[in-house]
Amino acid sequence: MNPYVVMLGSWLVLLQSGAGPAFKDYPVGEVFRGTQAEPVLSTRRARDFRTQLRNETKSGANFAGHYTLARWGCGAGCVTVAVVDALSGRVWFAPFTVEDGWKDGHVICDHSTDFRVDSELFVASGKVNGRFGTHYFRWHGTTFSRLGDSPSCDRVAPDG
To answer: Could you give the CA distance from residue 28 to residue 16 in angstroms, rounded to a whole number?
Structure first.
């Protein structure tokens, strides 16, 4: 049997069981401790959110070694996510927002996020791209890759 199929099957069972990827599984080599570069406002979207990007980057790198994960409200019950390179100031926007999940007039899944400066793992709970649950992404290079989803909400990645 193809080892990739076995690995994928094991991964799906892990996600369905409620356990998810751990921060330690996606380590970074070094954590940047220097002065954060100003966000580069080279796109219309970055210019539209320049105040939020500048405010969010004041404290420096907080994600995946040398990035700042910037988050701000995009209305009632949702968050916009951007990543700013602390070294160059380059800005990327996530291809998703993290929202409260509503059903029958009630919030059944509050939005939340979890991440670490020493890991490429980003965890979002709530409704992401129309799906309820906990969503696991890896930031690597210049993009988020979806690692998988768990149907339960408010579960964060294990530290261990």
So the answer is: 27
Q: Exposed (0-12), middle (13-18) or buried (19+): which is 103, by Cβ within 10 Å?
A: exposed
pLDDT in tens, 43-61: 999 999 999 999 999 999 9
The Cα 139–Cα 67 span in angstroms is 10
Which among 27, 118, 136, 25 is positioned nearest to 67, based on CA atoms?
118
Q: What are the tens digits of pLDDT across the range 59-101? A: 999 999 999 999 999 877 888 999 999 999 999 999 998 888 7
d(CA 103, CA 42): 39
Separation of alpha carbons 25 and 142, rounded Å: 19
- C-alpha span between 134 and 152 (Å, rounded): 6
Domain boundaries, the chain: 3-150
**Rounded Cα–Cα distance for residues 83 and 2 (Å):** 36
Is residue 115 within a helix (H) or strand (E), and if so which, with residue range?
Answer: strand 112-115
Question: What is d(CA 36, CA 47) in angstroms, rounded to the nearest whole number?
Answer: 18
For residue 39, what are its two tokens? Answer: 């966000």
Q: Is the dihedral of CA 143, 80, 112, 78 positive or negative?
A: negative
